[in-house]
């Protein structure tokens, strides 16, 4: 089952009168502290002309600042435009280790007008952390993120 309470908390946190960055930052903080086994959560913004992703707002340790398309989990999701669940990052060819403590990773591409606008990257200390329920939960969370990010009125 997906974590309905977490999604409700996330929904109630959103204040449409605030700038995007305020809501996005608070949503990241909520996830980071609700899930103690998540050691990093944040955004990489994609530059489709330069074919690279650069670090956006996040919670966690200092991270890699540039990720070329095709490189690592983030760079692969940027090109494939699909969510990727990596149960063991040490088995993912070309994985970029920003933090050696990370063992599992879940990424969602945020797509605007057919182009990858950004990647939501979620890292865990625990192998096989992202089971079906968590993937479903973070899918719903990603939809909330997108409702802020892609709202032209905000
Ligand atoms: N591990 C990622 C890089 C980003 S950090 O984990 C924050 C990757 O392979 O794309």
Would you kindly provide a written description of the structure presented here, covering whatever features stand out?
The protein is of the alpha+beta class. The protein has four helices and six strands; from the N terminus they run H-H-E-E-E-H-E-E-E-H. The protein has a six-stranded antiparallel β-sheet, with helices on both faces. A hairpin with a 4-residue loop joins strand 1 and strand 2. Helix 1 (4-13) packs antiparallel against helix 2 and helix 1 (4-13) packs parallel to helix 4. The protein is globular and about 40 Å long. It binds methionine sulfoxide. Methionine sulfoxide is lined by residues 40, 63-64, 67, 72-75, 95-96, 98, 102, 105, 121, 123.
